[in-house]
Amino acid sequence: MAKEIKTIGILTSGGDAPGMNAAIRAVVRKAIANGVKVKGIKKGYQGLLNEEIIDMDAHSVSDVIQRGGTILGTARCSEFRTEEGQKKGAQICKKHGIDGLVVVGGDGSYRGAQALSQHGINTIGLPGTIDLDIACTDYTIGFDTAVNTAMQAIDKVRDTSSSHERCSIIEVMGRNAGYIALWCGIANGAEDILLPEKYDFNEQQIINNIIKNRKRGKTHHLIINAEDIGHSTSMARRIEAATGIETRATILGYMQRGGSPTCKDRYWASIMGAYAADILCEGKTNRVVAMKNGSIVDFDIEEALAMQKSIDEYQYQVARILSM
Ligand code: ADP
Ligand code: F6P
Question: 217-244: b or e for each residue (b if 16 or more CB lie within 10 Å)?
């Protein structure tokens, strides 16, 4: 028989993402509607180990749906990767009467949730990351806002780049995943897209492409560089030296993680948050909420973590062809 759930906890973990607040609000209010008490855990697993735990009611999540970041705070916590840290986390949950926990974060945070479930705390993961790099789901909370923020910024850089007939390298986030770069590559009409999953470090080919396009009359050349693929500033210097075309680098950085969430992020974070509260209150554990083919579903964490996801080859080829 499923464990009776009287009190649940919620925490956000890893990099923050716009829409996390909408998810927190939905979890809190749906759990309360289900007759369950809610505690908020501040600063992710680090806050759990430090017992930074607060009572939450419907009013605690007033006026937050439109706010970026996470009202609970977030952190990366190395102690939670250890067996002792995980045991201590479960004991603290028990001490505070927390029978179940919703964890909003990425794959790393799911591993922490999986460990807690093994120590007797029911857990449900919600996909919160701007990177869209969780294999089991077609949607992650924050990606839509981040990619729209990046797209608007790139449009602005394009205006000045084109006026000065320059080449621009724009670095977007996504250290291990090129989804922001791919989407902006298509949406901003970039000439080159450097993705961690695809880039072969053939800079000469980029240089040849720039020279060819300039001869054909293109007034600008946009290169979207996913974080950590190359050092954008030194790449700009090398490209300028090789082509004779003024080249500038712009690193968009953390602005992509902040800001008011889009309607899509508020909407799906709310639906997913409510769903997480429901399945947790039903006594489910070790599950993650996901979107598949437009519907909200849930998977076993082990199964979800074993799934693989890669850049769609057709979409990547389209991005390249359309930039002709
Ligand atoms: P994300 O959740 O976005 O993937 P991280 O990989 O930084 O972000 O993970 C967030 C936090 O989750 C880590 O700081 C750590 O506390 C916890 N975590 C990550 N990996 C594990 C693991 N293998 N076991 C337990 N906890 C983990
Ligand atoms: O996972 C989200 C993300 O913003 C990545 O795109 C980026 O590589 C990383 O987090 C940056 O992490 P930190 O906040 O530790 O600099």
Answer: ebebbbbbbbbebbebeebbeebbebbe
